[in-house]
């Protein structure tokens, strides 16, 4: 099991929708006092006393009479003792003294931050996308609009029929007096959409293109300062109060940044040119400042999503820590058109769990040597621990269905038991302020037969785990060359360990038990994660970070695209990924996880059949696009 070429690991999607839905338990869970594990269906229980034995550490525990029953048959009345996945829910509305409030009061703010250094063509597309966003939002949404460039403009919704804004310098943070003016003045900078919709449309229509002569990369953009101002508005007067006294709105606040270039002014800024003599030092400083700003956003339960578009590089390594530390994402687009507008709407409406903790526990014979996912190691102060709790725990800013955690294990001693156990728990607060704990418990049988072990391996899962471990080490362009070599060595090791010797030669065949592994690793080696790409290195960085956090299904598609051909009746037939022969009478769909490419020939486009094809393809894109929170699609003809 410690074979380095294959390894042993797991991909966990803790917030993924489960069908049928797991049972919901509205009481506190019973946990092992020794290792912290949750009671589960593999526990040994004495119905007379209610005591239960933890399968992970073999220690007996008291259930305080919870599991007392007349017989073992009656234990089926406890869902956690018969089901491998359960949800514990603490509902805030059940607390004594809870008083419901209106949706308008509870709605979390949505701040839109707009780059005002755009050329006219880009601005026109952005205005169209923003108008579509405003029309798609719920009436109770609390909205704020800020533009940033050389200065930060905070728009006032109290001025009916006209776009009015308070302007702050972008090269420094507003001082205390300016912040007091912003918070206690007469301006209205956050308002329910049903009150300010017409004013918001007027503000978007009033935006003007950049009129200077500087190139896109050389224009002033004070993104960091704009985020600071937005966070001050969200926090409001409570920024002068102790944190324990602050009443939070429902769910997470959201900051949507529409960016067309790098942050070159104020906090977290970098020089215009990468040839600057101190660029490396200033870049490291800017990364730390952006990460600190993202952490501050997370402390305020605010998520920062950065949606970039255009041809100007945004210096992804600098700005992405802002999004990642807050639990948001950074997405690149070709322009501010249709795909950008669709992603803007999905980013504004997606719901996320927040203040999350991911815990994993497993049999004592294992140790976890790698954990890859959207979080960082948790401290003892952030979660409860038992007497001998050896769990691997991570703080997760946001908990979403499309995320996953990849864990790689090693054996630290021989397995003597017939089964080994793994338990994963995800704790978070949902948008309704319910405290949710999802517990997943898995039991795996052990074997001494190599043939049985090989038959139990899922080569698609192995491919994704190998891909994530490899991509995690490929942090820059030079690292990707080394990782390509590691894939080659891994293939040789798998063939040497599991393959059969070829007659009259020293070579060994690749094992037939892994029919998909070789092909998927071939796509990994030559694909955009490790292979050469056409475009800026920013694109690889964004794709790598998205891949490391993505669910299993999306990760597999990023490594190994899926090709489908449209058939009569609105069905799609999957083709081998290496059979890319275009046909004159069929439409081809290439599903690449983050992008969908649709190829339709001129003959189809000019016929009545094209209407049916477009409807079928659009519906297919909608179905597979719903598996992730942000989606890009492109049509080729």
Summarize the structure in words.
This protein is an alpha+beta fold. It is built from 16 helices and 26 strands. Strands 7, 8, 9, 10, 11, 12, 13 and 14 form an eight-stranded mixed beta sheet that branches. Strands 2-6-21-20-15-18-17 form a seven-stranded mixed beta sheet, with no helix packed on it. Strand 4 and strand 5 (60-61) form a beta hairpin. Helix 10 (459-473) runs parallel beside helix 12 (517-526). The radius of gyration is 27 Å and the shape is globular. Mean pLDDT is 84; it is low at 93-106, 239-247 and 626-637.
The number of helices is 16
Share of residues in strands: 15-25%
Low-confidence stretches: 93-106, 239-247, 626-637
Task: Give average pLDDT, whole number.
Answer: 84
Please estimate the helix content: 25-40%
User: What is the first-to-last residue Cα distance?
Assistant: 48 Å
Concise structural overview:
This protein is 31% helix and 23% strand. By secondary structure, the protein is an alpha+beta fold.
What key phrases describe this protein's structure?
637 residues, globular, alpha+beta, disordered C terminus, 31% helix
Describe how the helices and strands are arranged.
Blueprint (H helix, E strand, L loop, with lengths): L7 E5 L11 E2 L18 E2 L6 E2 L6 E2 L23 E6 L12 H4 L2 E7 L4 H17 L5 E7 L2 E6 L7 E6 L6 H9 L6 E2 H14 L16 H13 L17 E7 L19 H21 L2 E8 L6 H11 L3 E4 L4 H12 L3 E10 L3 E7 L3 E2 L14 E8 L5 E7 L7 E11 L5 E11 L4 H6 L3 H15 L3 H22 L18 H10 L10 H13 L2 H8 L2 E6 L3 E5 L12 E4 L3 E5 L2 H4 L3 H17 L6 E5 L1
Parallel strand pairs: 2-6, 7-8, 7-12, 12-13, 13-14, 25-26
Antiparallel strand pairs: 1-19, 3-4, 4-5, 6-21, 8-9, 8-11, 9-10, 15-18, 15-20, 16-19, 17-18, 20-21, 22-23, 22-24, 24-25
Helix pairs in contact: 2-4, 2-8, 6-7, 10-12, 10-14, 11-12
């Amino acid at each position: 099991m410690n074979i380095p070429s294959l390894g042993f690991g797991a991909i966990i999607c803790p917030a993924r929708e489960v069908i049928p839905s797991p049972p919901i338990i509205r009481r506190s869970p019973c946990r092992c006092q020794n290792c912290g594990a949750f009671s589960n269906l593999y526990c040994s229980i004495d119905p007379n006393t209610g005591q239960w034995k933890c399968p992970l550490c073999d220690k007996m525990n008291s259930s305080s009479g919870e599991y007392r029953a007349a017989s073992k048959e009656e234990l089926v009345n406890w869902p956690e003792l018969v089901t491998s996945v359960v949800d514990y829910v603490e509902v805030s509305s059940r607390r004594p003294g809870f008083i419901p409030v209106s949706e308008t009061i509870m709605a979390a703010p949505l701040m839109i931050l707009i780059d005002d250094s755009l050329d006219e063509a880009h601005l026109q597309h952005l205005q169209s996308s923003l108008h579509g966003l405003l029309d798609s939002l719920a009436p109770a949404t609390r909205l704020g609009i800020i533009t940033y460039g050389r200065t930060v403009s905070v728009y006032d919704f109290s001025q009916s029929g006209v776009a009015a804004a308070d302007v702050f310098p972008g090269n420094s943070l507003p001082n205390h007096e300016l912040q007091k003016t912003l918070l206690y003045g007469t301006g209205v900078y956050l308002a329910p959409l049903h009150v300010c919709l017409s004013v918001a449309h007027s503000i978007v229509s009033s935006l003007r293109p950049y009129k200077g002569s500087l190139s896109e990369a050389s224009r002033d953009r004070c993104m960091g300062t704009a985020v600071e101002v937005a966070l001050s508005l969200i926090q409001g007067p409570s920024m002068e109060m102790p944190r324990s006294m602050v009443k939070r709105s429902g769910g997470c606040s959201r900051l949507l940044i529409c960016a067309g270039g790098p942050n070159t002014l104020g906090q977290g800024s970098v020089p215009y040119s990468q040839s600057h003599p101190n660029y490396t030092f200033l870049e490291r400083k800017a990364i730390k400042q952006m990460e600190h700003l993202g952490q501050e956003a997370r402390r305020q339960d605010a998520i920062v999503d950065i949606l970039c578009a255009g041809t100007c590089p945004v210096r992804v390594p600098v700005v992405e820590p802002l999004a990642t530390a807050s639990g948001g994402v950074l997405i690149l687009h070709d322009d501010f058109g249709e795909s950008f507008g669709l992603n803007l709407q999905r980013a504004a409406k997606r719901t996320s769990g927040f203040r999350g903790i991911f815990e994993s526990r497993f049999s004592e014979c294992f140790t976890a040597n790698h954990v890859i996912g959207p979080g960082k190691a948790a401290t003892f102060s952030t979660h409860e621990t038992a007497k001998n709790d050896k769990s691997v725990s991570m703080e997760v800013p946001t908990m979403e269905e499309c995320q996953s955690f990849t864990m790689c294990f090693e054996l630290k001693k021989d397995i003597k038991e017939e089964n080994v156990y793994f338990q994963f728990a995800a704790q978070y607060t949902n948008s309704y302020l319910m405290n949710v704990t999802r517990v997943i418990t898995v039991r795996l049988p052990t074997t001494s037969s190599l043939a049985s072990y090989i038959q139990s391996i899922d080569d698609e899962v192995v491919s994704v785990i190998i891909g994530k471990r490899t991509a995690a080490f490929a942090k820059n362009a030079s690292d990707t060359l080394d990782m390509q070599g590691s894939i080659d060595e891994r293939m040789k090791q798998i063939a040497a360990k599991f393959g059969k010797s070829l007659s009259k030669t020293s070579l060994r065949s690749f094992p037939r038990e892994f029919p998909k592994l070789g092909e998927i690793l071939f796509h990994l080696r030559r694909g955009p994660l490790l292979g050469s790409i056409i475009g800026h290195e920013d694109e690889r960085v964004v794709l790598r970070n998205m891949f490391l956090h993505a669910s299993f299904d999306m990760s597999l598609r990023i490594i190994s695209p899926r090709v489908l051909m449209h058939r009569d009746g609105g069905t799609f037939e999957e083709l081998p990924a290496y059979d890319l022969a275009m046909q004159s009478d069929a439409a081809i769909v290439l599903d690449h996880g983050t992008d969908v490419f649709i190829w339709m020939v001129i003959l189809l486009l000019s016929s009545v059949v094209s209407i049916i094809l477009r409807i079928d393809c659009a519906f297919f894109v909608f179905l597979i696009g719903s598996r992730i929170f942000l989606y890009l699609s492109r049509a080729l003809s």
